[in-house]
Amino acid sequence: MKATALNEPKNSNEISREYIESLFDMPFMDLLLKAQSVHRQHFNANEVQVSTLLSIKTGNCPEDCGYCSQSGHYRDKTGLQAEKLLQVEKVIAAAKKAKASGSSRFCMGAAWKHPSDKDMPYIATLIKEVKALGLETCMTLGMLNADQSQQLAEAGLDYYNHNLDTSRLYYDEVVTTRSYDERLQTIDHVRRSGINVCSGSIVGMGESREDRIDWVHQLASMPLPPESIPVNLLVPIKGTPLGDKVLSEGQLPVLEWIRTIAVTRICCPTSYVRLSAGRESLSDAEQALAFMAGANSFFYGDKLLTTGNASQSNDDRLMSQLGLTPMAPKPALTVVDALSGHKSQI
Known about the structure:
Elements: H1 17-24, H2 28-42, E1 47-57, H3 75-78, H4 88-101, E2 105-110, H5 120-131, E3 136-140, H6 146-155, E4 159-161, H7 180-193, E5 196-198, E6 201-203, H8 209-220, E7 228-233, H9 241-249, H10 254-267, E8 272-275, H11 284-292, E9 297-300, H12 312-322, E10 325-326, E11 334-336, E12 343-345
Parallel strand pairs: 1-2, 1-9, 1-10, 2-3, 3-4, 4-5, 6-7, 7-8, 8-9
Antiparallel strand pairs: 11-12
Helix pairs in contact: 1-8, 2-10, 4-5, 5-6, 6-7, 8-10, 10-11
């Protein structure tokens, strides 16, 4: 392994693939020290952003993502039962519970390839009602066109999640029902509408380190990297193609996952880097290493969309032991156009 990385780029848009490779090659402790140093330049080192994730429509998705139990392609093998859209009242009740538990951001996900026009008023209502509670809002609904992105922005959505999942080269091994460029197009629509972008990856799907390098390079090369970057570890679900592959061949070592988190922090220094899927399998010491590597966001609650998550009581205990405190939500600012009188939030 190399003792040091290549010369520092002046800004993230100048980060080369070779530089990212040199970071991955650093001795582990040197890499964590560098990542923590970068992290402290942009964030309070002992604060974490806490989110809660709720599935508002579960199962029978037409996509064939090879890691996902919600895909209709694998439902006979996974046995996941499809559920209808949750009523607005149930979503708001869950959001109130999340706020009371200490979450500052409430994320809502629907198992769609893309939302339909008839669903947009329902989605807009959820955004407005959750924001009225004083929470930041995030949605993950599949692909969006420009008009849908604008509608979400006008409703006041703070973040939109649309993961790249992996590198361009490995992408066809993960999903075939939408292209890599379609994912990038949705992210561009979200960015142009003024909504913060949440986009990350799932590591440990059988990809190589070269693929992880390419994925980080893709994010760092964007005109503006995502404000929030989940770095998930695949939770292998029996009955899904990638889940069965990993259960047969073995999971990615946790230290390689943490190494990926550290490299992401260095290359995207102002982004929230989120621990998401896979965190429930980590020991206290491994979670502490992940926070040392620059992770500063995670999901609260016993369940993500369909998979288990670390319990809230265990998270509270660990945060107390590590001296971590949850961030408060950032208040939205209302801007009024002097000519039209139109109100929007930033």
